[in-house]
Amino acid sequence: MRSPCVRNERGIALVVAIVALVVIGAIVTGTFFMSTIEQRTSINAAYTSRALEAAEAGMNSAVGGWVPVSYTPGTDVVFSKTQVSATSVGDSFQVTVSPLNSELLLVKSVGTSIGGVTQTLATAVRLNTADVNVTAAITTTSPINFNGAAFVIDGNNADPNGWGGCPPGPNLYAIRTSSNNWFVPPMQQNQQDNVTGLGNWPSVQTNQNDISSSTFENFGDLTYNQMAAAATIQFQSYENGPYQPTPTLNGTRCNYGDRYNWGEPFRTAGYVAECQNYFPTIHAYGNLHLNGGSRGQGVLLVDGNLIVDGGFQFYGLVIAKGSVNLGGTGSDGGKIYGGLFSQNIVINDQSIIQGNASVQYSNCAILRALQGGAYPVPLSGHAWTQVYN
Amino acid sequence: MPSTLHARRGFTLVELLVAVVVLTIVLGGIYNLLLNTQRVSRAQAERMDMQSNMRAGTLIVPSELREVGYDTTYLPAAGGLAGSLSTVQSDILAMGPTSIRFRAVRRSGIICAVGATTVTVFGQWTTVGWNASGYRAPSVNDDLTIFVEGGTTTGADDRWITRDIIGITTAGVNCPALGAIGAGPGTQFTMLGFAGVNDPVTSAQITVGSPVRLNEIMEYSLYTDADGRNYLGAQSISAGGGRQPVLGPLNPNNGFNLTYLDLNGNQVACAAPCNGGFASADMQARRRVRTVGVSVVAISDENVSPAGTGANQQLLDSVVTLVTLRNAVHR
């Protein structure tokens, strides 16, 4: 008879404990849920910030480390990086440079952080291009010392062999100088036959008052010193050569990091196609000697004297503050396609052209070189923008 | 039967008292545990709300301020040149320690055609693409900032001008292909003209391919709402709308505080509202601003007990961030 009594003596401890556990569990679960949401929101915000930073890193590296290629309207240039910095494993950016017209480009950078969050930034830049008034194949201030009769100075416009899309250009004089005499006597008849171009034979203009020190210093918005400072390849005053620049590859891409890679001007078999659009600006603080059957293109600025022989060929614009010595025999003659400015700033300094050297005016080579040598300047005031797609 | 009754004895009074006391202690403990848990939970929720507020403050305000830049006015009569400091007009229209009024970028685009008083821009509101970026449709209340190329052989006369929009047309508006941008629908913006009071700009100086920015004049400020609490409010000045709370509640004393720094990191002094016009000392001060310091001090919505015990109190947390004005650093 005890068992019914025991059944009736039920407690409430278990019920209370269960209710308490349920209530505490609900509160803890609710807090945990809210914390999880908060954590995810924070992580997403962090990913968004990282993506924005990656995009900005891409944009800054594109503008700051401008690749001196010839940007053609209608053709985008794309490059990317999979890790922005040593501390941002997994973050990446992809930059697209889109020419908008002949002066403006849009640099768009898509940053992606781990977690797949993307942010897009863009900046509009203006290509700061030197405005060089080329009026002759050779522009100089002193008489030139000619040796032999195998050289060629030609002011008639000629497109480099195999270069496509060249705009028409005018024929110019072979030589224009501010000096009374354009050559150092004696000068033979057969030597003068090699100086061709605009106007009567020989194609020369002397006593040109428009040629002054400013001709070699000021190029539109840019000065010689600004162009030199912006040059992507620099040779110190003690680095005089002789050098043999040759286009090289880094894997399957043109090796922009090689200071002896000055682009590829050739379009014949065996040429390095990946570097044909690469037009660096090269600056030498002192004298420079180039030879070795090598080649390059772009803008070459030499503070001292320039020697080109041994078959070296350069396509573009050459400005030498000192004298220029173009020489070499047979196929070893130094050659310049584009335009040559020789200031001869040293008293009694003379440029020498001899052997099989040649200077061929080429409007196309100069335009491409100047375009490649241009550097970007953000459109002050409103260049930077966030892109919402 | 007596033997049966004897076997079913009840509890003594002492036993009952002991049981009640023990039960009271146990229930009291459980109640305290529940109460503390609930208080901690509430405090935690309040703290998360505050942090969410502050996070919003560090995301919204900097993202709005980041693109603040400036226009440049060409003053040929005064011999001034584009870019000279006296002619720089900042996008910051007024500034003070608890409020800032500025042009906020709402869209960006590329010009595909220029008329006497119009520019046509690639893309329409529904278009997605890099050349038609934005997060809302354009409005006639907005204004348009246009890049002026001037002479194409020099960058010295390049500048941006801002003009009011008086008409927007999309029907039948198409843009031809431009470089890598394909042909497609466009948006035509009409203005009274390009020439400004201080700048004789003509349509010939604006080139196809130039960028434009669509702006809305916004004001962010600390204000006291009808509930007596303080919030960060956003107000579209150009659209004429009312002030809307963006985040809060904030500390009434220093809930939203702005500092303005120049190129060298020194504070730019200018008495609020610092909204003087062209060539004023206020404008000279505003154009010197390169970085804006944003401080948000949030308070909890209710008084809570952070540890679950002790008196309820108002929680308080803060965050400070510096915003570099990306478009004000290149001059």
Written description of the protein model:
- The complex is a heterodimer of chains A (389) and B (331).
- Chain A has 389 residues and is α/β, with parallel strands linked by helices.
- Chain A is 21% helix and 30% strand.
- Chain A has five helices and 26 strands.
- In chain A, a hairpin with a 2-residue loop joins strand 14 and strand 15 (253-254).
- The mean pLDDT of chain A is 85.
- Chain B is of the alpha+beta class and 331 residues long.
- Chain B contains three helices and 17 strands.
- Chain B has helices at residues 2-7, 13-65, 281-286, and strands spanning 70-72, 88-90, 92-95, 99-114, 118-122, 132-134, 143-148, 159-164, 167-169, 174-175, 184-190, 211-224, 230-236, 244-250, 256-261, 291-304, 313-324.
- In chain B, the strands form three sheets. In chain B, strands 3, 4, 5, 6, 7, 8, 9, 10, 11, 12, 13 and 14 form a twelve-stranded antiparallel β-sheet that branches. In chain B, strands 15-16-17 form a three-stranded antiparallel β-sheet. In chain B, strands 1-2 form a two-stranded antiparallel sheet.
- In chain B, a hairpin with a 7-residue loop joins strand 13 and strand 14.
- The longest helix of chain B has 53 residues, at 13-65.
- Chain B starts with a helix and ends in a 7-residue tail after the last strand.
- At the A-B interface, helix 2, strand 2, strand 3, strand 4 and strand 26 of A face helix 2, strand 1 and strand 4 of B.
In short:
Chain A has 389 residues and is α/β, with parallel strands linked by helices. Chain A has helices spanning 2-8, 13-64, 189-192, 224-230, 363-372; strands at 77-81, 92-99, 104-112, 118-128, 136-140, 144-147, 152-154, 173-177, 195-196, 204-205, 218-219, 222-223, 233-235, 249-250, 253-254, 281-284, 288-290, 295-302, 306-308, 313-320, 324-326, 335-342, 351-354, 358-361, 375-378, 384-387.
Annotation keywords:
heterodimer; A: 389 residues; alpha/beta; eleven-stranded parallel sheet; six-stranded antiparallel sheet; 21% helix; elongated; B: 331 residues; alpha+beta; twelve-stranded antiparallel sheet; three-stranded antiparallel sheet; 3 helices; 17 strands; 20% helix
